[in-house]
UniProtKB/TrEMBL annotation:
Region (Disordered): 406-486
Lineage: Bacteria, Pseudomonadati, Pseudomonadota, Betaproteobacteria, Burkholderiales
Gene Ontology cellular component annotations, sorted alphabetically: outer membrane-bounded periplasmic space
Record's keyword annotation contains Protease: yes
CDD domains with a match to the protein in the record: cpPDZ_CPP-like, Peptidase_S41_CPP
MF term (GO), any: serine-type peptidase activity
Gene Ontology BP term (one): proteolysis
Name the record gives this protein: Peptidase S41
Limits of the PDZ domain: 88-170
Amino acid sequence: MRQKLKIAGWVAIGALTGALTTVSLQTAARANMAPLPLEELQQLAAVFSMVKSDYVEPVDEKKLISDAITGMVASLDPHSQYYDKKTFKEFREGTTGRFVGVGIEITQEEGLIKIVSPIEGSPAFRGGIKSGDMITKIDDTVVKGLSLNDAVKRMRGEPGTKVMLTIYRKDENRTFPVNIIREEIKTQSVKGKVVEPGYGWIRLSQFQERSVDDFAKKLEEIYKQEPKLKGVVLDLRNDPGGLLDAAVAVSAVFLPENVNVVSTNGQLAESKFVYKASPEFYRRSSGSDPIARLHQATKGIYRTVPLVVLVNEGSASASEIVAGALQDHKRATIMGSQTFGKGSVQTVRQLGPDTALKITTARYYTPSGRSIQAKGIVPDVLLDDTAEGSPFAILRMREADLDKHLESGQGNAAKDKAQDKEREKAREEAMKRLEEESKKPNNERRPPEFGSDKDFQLEQALKRLKGQPVLASKTQTERPAEKKDK
């Protein structure tokens, strides 16, 4: 039986941890263990014994071993991780789109926790937390020096319990506390509407278990409202990824049946696989096929209707699988900015009933054989964020910027020092402009909502569908995959 891969580019714990991941969930560890280096293991045992007997105060030996495993795995790449009892439970919750937490997407910056965005309707959202806010303390614990996982653990808890977050808001130059009552967060990953007669817009913010059903239902609604569709915009901007079968299903909505969507390749035989736009590659063991139902209800219109896909630097993992498949099959025009470049597969193997190891086991490839690891999908039409340009794009992190990132495996050009200097100069200029922007009133700084009538990139996508001239970027260029320093 083929291996069932799952991806998670995830909001597990009420927080986007920044480790945009692609995973295969397996219920047991491998039986064929590799030969063990006995001399090195003896050294490890000796160190463990010395720490246990000689350290200034008693240590928890279970925690010592857990920390050793954590450090070993963390040295591999940014996406491999050891899950203890709590984090494994949180990981599994994160793929369902339901979890208990405060409702924020976060990343780590300069030792602090930075809010990427509060989830709409969540306790954090209602508490007034904003994108760009920094968390300096969680209850009485100073965040500086904590790992991202440790910080996230402290924000998790049981429904109805309280947590106090101390927030630093740079643009107002003030620090203040926000008391939040934890609750179950239900994320809605699909939005869509008829934006104007003949044209639909559908947005996926994450590929979760419920996303395929919600996606199919939303497209049915759009068709019922506008049966004479002339074009559709699929919006994957800032979508960090999700479940692989969901990515295959979304691709199958727009592609001919049974064409290749994505392939994976690694050391293990089970990691070498091709996924196709066919029900057996995305349908779960029980239940009907929502994609077949959609095609029947809409007379197959979504396989032929003109299509534009919007992406940006925040589009990663499963988003890149969909964009790459539609681009390679020439089914859609990809527009926006070069994507994140998360092209590796992580396998999650349970080590016991409630612990697991997430380890990178393969790279994934578009139908034409491109590895997008550390490079991303390059749009057919590069677009700026606004009509005035993309002044802050240089500040956005991509896979190639992550420490210890995996290379594409297809050869990379060495870093150009002159190019590095230019990028550093651009970063400095962007930071100065960001400082100036922070002095403006809030209503002038807030970026237009995706899907609104002020969404510049959506406006360009609609022009493309209508055959009208598009205001393409004059400054963006393809960013090559970067070779990491040895």
